[in-house]
Specification:
heterodimer, A: mainly alpha, 2 strands, 70% helix, globular, B: alpha/beta, Rossmann fold, 25% strand, binds adenosine-5'-diphosphate, binds magnesium ion
Chain lengths: 327, 268
């Protein structure tokens, strides 16, 4: 018996295959697509390079205290101190606040649209939610300060009166305006659309047969939701939530309008009338900033950028890990 | 529709599940007309007929899955042990506990392990105080998959082959201890070997439960079923039962010419 590998015939030469575009229009198309892709990556790289270049001096001078300290004085040219601790923490606190408020609303809206509404109502609801995303940030900020702040301050007062024994709902200063709680609501309004639309997309891709299987086993709608729909879509929903979180962290103008910026760090007193936000701080200080201060503000922007990149990367990892059954 | 005289042969056997003049609509469209069938205790009934004639739709009226489609309309009665499951006081989730269902495509819960899938019905319907180990083993044995999975109960259900997944779905249904199992073309997505195993399982199960199976496979209907109903929908008319009787009669001595043509592969 002769085996295939013992054959004495020479291996034929490799032939040319048409894997790469060879028609002229294909080559042009390929070139344009590649240029766009390289360009997008290049722009991000250039932005990062510019930020690093501008931030270098501040970061070197201020050291770790730039991130962890709580002082900002540009008055004395001999001894300028730039530290963004309360702003960085404030950005995170407001973003978490917003996400915690937005997630239940978004999931409920997505569930309603996908599983309860007739197709006509579903279309209307989808349009309304998408419209919410189209409202300019500045308009939400104006609405936030003019209309929503008094309402939310009242809610905060009620929370304080009834749940004030929890550290979370302490309020010593007596002012309920300008708090991370209110800024959190504003952020929630702005990220509900993105989380709703990601969640709706995930729900719509669920295998209806799997949901029918639960029903056929005698499950109620609520237990089907809790034990089948949510676990099956959790990875994708977390991805949507992190996208929302990224947006919440970067939100500038709307928060600038409703938040009372303070360099005294506010750890968890969400209904206390002071807080921080890197993006709002940049807006607030930029106009009157000295050249040194501008560099420090750009460094603050760099920190925000890096955190947002980390969150996006985390989103990708979680989405991939949480749904191993999806290829 | 035509003569149902073969059904007379069955009237002596105790009726377990029975449909009386079932009519179904989707929106304005009338898709099933006057379907009256009797499913006796511990018998396998095959529903055959060309695709689109309403077999799946009829099957879903039997456990009230039909009404989950927003445009669904229904008339007639479904009697389980003499009680109409469409009576206003009846909770559809309770009906589905007594009448289990296996779908065309294997659909285990992808986030759950093999063991969790078997117990999923108990969890989903909020039951308590059961012996999990015992139920898992019994159900998997009854679905003839125990030996293949007993050492890997914690593995994801999606790690099983298609045929194993379908038997797991049968086990999942059996864990609820239903009186009746409905199967909608349970082998149409499976290879011949897996199909054979499922047919053996159906045979064993029919000793203790009533089974209704939709199949487009004529040999399968003859191998597994005691009685057969032939459904047909002609020229835009609603579908209905052309012939219903003992399986050997329907296949070897059909009364209706259309049945004869269908079972001999002349159309459909
Ligand atoms: N969800 C639905 N909405 C509207 N029409 C449907 C729906 N499901 C089935 N039908 C219609 O009902 C008829 C019967 O379908 P079905 O019961 O699936 O047939 P079978 O299982 O015999 O192939 C078909 O004409 C089909 O188009
Ligand atoms: Mg069908």
């Amino acid at each position: 018996m002769s085996s295939v590998s013992e054959s004495s015939k020479p291996v034929p030469a490799k032939r040319k295959l048409a894997a790469k575009p060879h028609l002229v229009q294909d080559k042009v198309f390929f070139g344009v697509a590649r240029a766009a892709a390289v360009g997008a990556v290049g722009i991000v790289g250039l932005i990062l390079a510019y930020l690093l270049f501008m931030s270098w001096e501040t970061l070197a001078k201020q050291g770790f205290n730039f991130i962890f300290g709580s002082q900002w004085t540009a008055a004395d040219p001999e001894n300028m101190i730039f530290q963004i601790g309360p702003m960085l923490w404030g950005s995170l606190l407001i973003a978490f606040n917003g996400v915690i408020l937005a997630v239940p609303m978004a999931i409920a809206a997505a569930y309603f649209i996908e599983f309860l509404a007739t197709s006509r109502i579903a279309k209307i609801a989808t349009t309304v939610v998408d419209l919410l995303a189209a409202i300019p940030s500045i308009v939400i900020g104006l609405w936030g300060v003019g209309v929503f702040t008094p309402v939310a301050a009242h809610w905060a007062e009620l929370l304080n009166q009834n749940l004030g024994f929890l550290p979370l709902f302490k309020n010593e200063a007596g002012s309920f305006v300008g708090s991370p709680f209110i800024a959190g609501w504003i952020v929630a309004v702005m990220i509900v659309p993105i989380i709703t639309s990601v969640t709706r997309e995930i729900f719509s891709q669920l295998d209806r047969d799997v949901i029918n299987a639960a029903t056929a086993l005698g499950a109620s709608r609520s237990s089907t939701f809790m034990k089948v729909i949510l676990p099956t879509s959790s990875g994708g929903i977390v991805g949507g939530v992190l996208l929302g979180l990224g947006r919440a962290l970067g939100e500038t103008v709307a928060i600038f309008f409703v938040l009372n910026l303070s360099f005294e760090i506010n750890w968890v007193d969400v209904i206390e009338g002071r807080g921080g936000s890197i993006a709002s701080m940049i807006v607030a200080f930029f106009g009157a900033a000295t050249p040194e201060e501008v560099k420090a503000l750009i460094a603050a922007g760099l920190v925000l950028f890096v955190i947002t990149l980390l969150i996006n990367w985390l989103a990708a990892v979680i989405v991939a890990k949480a749904q191993p059954w999806r290829k | 529709m035509s003569d149902l005289s073969n059904a007379a042969n069955l009237s002596t056997i105790e009726a377990h599940l029975r449909s009386e003049d079932v009519n179904v609509w989707f929106g304005e469209r009338h898709v099933l007309r006057d379907v009256s069938l009797t499913f006796p205790v511990n018998q396998v009934t095959a529903l055959i007929g060309p695709s689109g004639c309403g077999k799946s739709t009829f099957l879903r009226t039997l456990n009230r899955m039909h009404e989950l489609i927003p445009s669904a309309g229904f008339a007639g009665r479904i009697l389980l042990d003499g009680e109409d499951i469409y009576e206003p006081g009846v909770d559809p989730t309770n009906v589905r506990l007594k009448i289990g269902m296996v779908f065309q495509k294997p659909n285990p819960f992808p986030t759950m392990s093999i063991k969790e899938n078997v117990l999923s019905g108990l969890k989903l319907s909020g039951r308590r105080g059961y012996d999990a180990t015992e139920i898992v083993e019994t159900s998997l044995r009854r679905a003839s998959i125990w030996n293949e999975v007993k050492d890997r109960l914690g593995d994801p259900a999606t790690s099983l082959s298609g045929g194993q997944q379908q038997r797991l779905c049968i086990a999942r249904s059996l864990a609820m201890n239903p009186e009746v199992i409905l199967m909608d073309e349970p082998c149409s997505a499976l290879d011949p070997g897996s199909t054979r195993r499922i047919e053996e399982t159906i045979e064993e199960l029919s000793e203790t439960m009533t089974i209704v199976i939709v199949t487009h496979n004529m040999q399968q209907a003859q191998r597994v079923s005691h009685q057969t109903a032939f459904f047909l929908a002609e020229d835009g008319n609603p579908g209905g039962v052309v012939e219903f009787g003992k399986t050997e009669d329907v296949f070897n001595n059909p009364i209706d010419l259309r049945t004869n043509d269908y079972v001999n592969g002349h159309f459909g």
